[in-house]
Design brief:
The protein is of the alpha+beta class and about 100 residues long. The chain is built from two helices and four strands; from the N terminus they run βαββαβ. The chain has a four-stranded antiparallel beta sheet, covered by helices on one side. The chain is globular. The protein starts with a strand and ends with a strand.
Length: about 100
């Protein structure tokens, strides 16, 4: 099992319940592909470095999880088509 971190930027124009549903769907995808969530870090609303889809702000979430090496590809393929996810990035954490 490898350690990964999934960074997700969610649309700031949607309601709180919809934002929570997006994060829950991301967590469900991780668990669906055999991952174990270790930590969810909510950074709240932040200004984007540049405008994306005419939006200047987004809600940032960082989800740390343990999974097999095949899981991040499957998770990214599903997150890519989610409507309210502006940007995402899944990276493997080094053993430091």
């Amino acid at each position: 099992m490898n350690k990964y971190e999934l960074a997700v930027v969610v649309n700031a124009r949607i309601e709180e319940e919809e934002r929570a549903a997006v994060v829950d769907r991301c967590k469900a995808l991780i668990e669906r592909f055999g991952g174990t969530i270790t930590n969810v870090d909510d950074w709240g609303k932040k200004r984007l470095a540049y405008e994306i889809q005419k939006m200047k702000e987004g809600f940032y979430y960082f989800i740390q999880f343990d999974a097999e090496s095949s899981a991040p590809i499957e998770i990214e393929n599903r997150i890519r088509i989610m409507d309210n996810v502006i940007r995402f990035l899944c990276v493997r954490q080094d053993k430091a």
